[in-house]
Amino acid sequence: MSDLQQFSIAALTNATITVPRFKVECQITDSMTGAVLFDFTGANGITFPVDLLTLYPTAAERLDFARLIANEMIRKKAGL
Q1: Nearest Cα to 49, choosing from 9, 13, 17?
Q2: What single DSSP character describes residue 79?
Q3: Phi and psi dihedrals of 27, rounded to 5?
Q4: Does 11 have pLDDT greater than 90?
Q5: Which of 15, 19, 63, 77 is the most buried (most CB within 10 A)?
Q6: Quick one: average pLDDT of 7-14?
Q7: 3-state DSSP call for residue 12?
Q8: What's the pLDDT tens digit per position in 33-62?
Q9: Neighbouring-strand partners of residue 28
Q10: CB 43 within 8 Å of CB 25
Q11: CA nearest neighbour of 42 among 53, 21, 26, 54
Q12: CA distance 44 to 35
C-alpha cells in the first residue's frame, strides 16, 4: 500500500487554454419506484470543464473538487 506524503494543492491564477471537453448525461432514479428524481440529459447535461464554476462557485468548493480528483491523478502519474 502506498501513502501520500507532503501532499498539497495550491490555487493558481486562471489561464486561457485549450482542453478536451466532455458531456456527462444521466438520470437519477428512485431504486424502489423507478421514478426519475433528477434528469441530467440534453440541455441539463453537465459539460466538463465548462460547468465547474457553476457547480463549484467558491474557491473552497473548487479546492474540495481538486482534492477529489488529486489522488487519482497522482496514482495515474505514478503508474499505480
Answers
A1: 17
A2: T
A3: -120, 140
A4: no
A5: 63
A6: 87
A7: coil
A8: 999 999 999 999 999 999 999 999 999 999
A9: 38
A10: no
A11: 26
A12: 17
Residue 1 has pLDDT above 80, yes or no: no
This model's pTM is above 0.90 = no
- For every residue of 22-60, DSSP letters joined together read EEE-EEEE-TTT--EEEEESGGGSEEETTTHHHHS-SHH
Closest-CA residue to 21 (of 45, 49, 40): 49
CA dihedral of 10, 73, 71, 13, whole degrees rounded to 10: 10
CA distance 74 to 44: 31
Residue 47's φ and ψ, nearest 5 degrees, are -100, 120
What is the Cα–Cα distance from 15 to 27, expressed in whole angstroms?
Answer: 33
Give Cα 2 distance to the centre of its chain: 24
